[in-house]
Amino acid sequence: MQPSNKTKWLKVIKFAIVGVASWLNPQAVLLLLLLELCFLVLIALQEVGSQSKPLSDAQQTFLWRLFFHILGALQTDEA
Questions:
Q1: Cβ 35 vs Cβ 16: under 8 Å
Q2: Owning domain of residue 39
Q3: What is the spatial distance between Cα 7 and Cα 22, in angstroms, rounded to a whole number?
Q4: DSSP 18-78
Q5: 9 in helix, strand or coil?
Q6: Comparing C-alpha atoms, which of 76, 5, 71 is closest to residue 34?
Q7: Taking the complete model, does pTM exceed 0.85, yes or no?
Q8: pLDDT truncated to tens, each residue of the chain (79 aa)?
């Protein structure tokens, strides 16, 4: 199974954003980790639609809640 075009672009955007963020502030390791984790969750949710066996509603809800929790942590962290 090949990744979709959207997933490929999401990985490129993740690489660019995390790369620029680490270049601008390499001391903010926790923020970089949270940003990386946020993109991993987005990629996992993107790939759910392309699978023949989709995730259950509870699994999708967990991933979305994790994504929004990480975003909240990124906004409130004062690194």
A1: no
A2: 5-76
A3: 22
A4: HHHHHHH-TT-HHHHHHHHHHHHHHHHHHHHTTSSSPPPHHHHHHHHHHHHHHHHHHHH--
A5: helix
A6: 71
A7: no
A8: 466 787 788 888 888 888 888 888 878 888 888 888 888 888 877 777 666 677 788 887 888 888 888 777 777 655 4
- Total domain count, the chain: 1
Cβ-based neighbours of 41, under 8 Å, separated by 6 or more: 63, 66, 67, 70
70 CB neighbour count, 10 Å cutoff: 20
Tokens 């990744």, residue located? 3
Give the C-alpha separation, 76 to 62, whole Å.
21
Please give the structure tokens belonging to residue 2: 């090949």
Give the DSSP letter of residue 7.
Answer: H
Structure tokens at 16: 């660019």
CB 13 within 8 A of CB 67: no
